[in-house]
């Protein structure tokens, strides 16, 4: 089972690499504005999770520079996710508001809708 999961994970990463989406190009000022907004977002994820790959592809397509934290590799990230979001499930998007209060959004579909609704261009 572990081997199958490992092989599937590698396959997902290979396909993601082979069919990497193209990023939209914004003018530098518009990109800087978006970068400032995405600075308050963090994606808790792990590399070979297919749902995380889906979210990362949306980020790539929309040229969203969002910090990612790998909950498989980082104990600190795992603790943050569990303490903040309440669930050790990925992907999870942490959205900090202007008062630094965090909202934790699970479900890849919901995260993608949120990112596209807020930032989509083209
Ligand atoms: N419906 C969820 C599925 C997410 C999911 O199953 N993630 C797996 C990793 S690929 C996970 O975190 N599993 C741990 C758990 O469910 O506790 C989504 O679309 O985001």
TrEMBL record:
Chain ranges of the GST N-terminal domain: 39-122
Stored SUPFAM superfamilies: Thioredoxin-like (SSF52833)
InterPro entries, alphabetized: Glutathione_S-Trfase_N (IPR004045), Thioredoxin-like_sf (IPR036249)
Chain coiled-coil ranges: none
Pfam families assigned: GST_N_3
This protein's name: Glutaredoxin
Originating organism: Halioglobus maricola
